[in-house]
């Protein structure tokens, strides 16, 4: 047998994605749950310049315009409920006493 190198796993502060540190650092900048995220499509301008038949016009960024605050609230509510149930389970679970032999 030989010893194998293990990598510590990190979790995104905004969603449940887990990976190695450098991947999560890159992900958190662009995570759709991050309110201060960097949008690669519009570069946080909110509009995208599109050209059609030689005419340039501004169009709302699809990724920034579809951010739904109601959906975010429902996700946060569900996550809070999950945390509460996890806390209740961990408080209620006590180690079982095994009879001595």
Keywords:
single chain, 101 residues, two-stranded antiparallel sheet, 3 helices, alpha+beta, 4 strands
Written overview of the protein:
The protein is α+β, with helices and mostly antiparallel strands and 101 residues long. It contains three helices and four strands, in the order ββαββαα. A two-stranded antiparallel sheet has the order 1-2. A two-stranded antiparallel ribbon has the order 3-4.
Helices, strands, pairings?
Layout (H helix, E strand, L loop, with lengths): L9 E2 L6 E2 L1 H10 L16 E6 L2 E6 L1 H4 L3 H24 L9
Antiparallel strand pairs: 1-2, 3-4
Low-confidence stretches at least 5 residues in length (pLDDT < 50)? none
Mean pLDDT comes to 78
The radius of gyration over CA amounts to 23 Å
Task: Profile the largest sheet.
Answer: 2 strands, antiparallel
Structural class of the helix and strand makeup?
alpha+beta
Order of helices and strands: EEHEEHH
Biggest β-sheet: strands ordered side by side in the sheet: 1-2
Oligomer: single chain
DSSP strand content = 15-25%
What's a concise summary of this model?
The protein has 101 residues and is α+β, with helices and mostly antiparallel strands. It has helices spanning 21-30, 62-65, 69-92, and strands at 10-11, 18-19, 47-52, 55-60. The protein has three helices and four strands, in the order E-E-H-E-E-H-H.
């Amino acid at each position: 047998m030989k010893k194998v190198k293990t990598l510590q796993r990190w979790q995104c502060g905004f969603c449940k994605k887990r990976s190695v540190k450098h991947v999560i650092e890159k992900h958190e900048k662009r995570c759709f749950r991050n309110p201060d995220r960097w949008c690669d499509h519009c570069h946080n301008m909110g509009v995208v310049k599109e050209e059609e038949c030689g005419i340039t016009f501004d169009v709302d960024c699809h990724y920034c315009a579809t951010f739904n605050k109601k959906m975010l609230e429902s996700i946060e509510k569900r996550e809070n409920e999950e945390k509460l149930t996890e806390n209740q389970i961990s408080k209620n679970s006590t180690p079982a006493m095994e009879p001595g032999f």
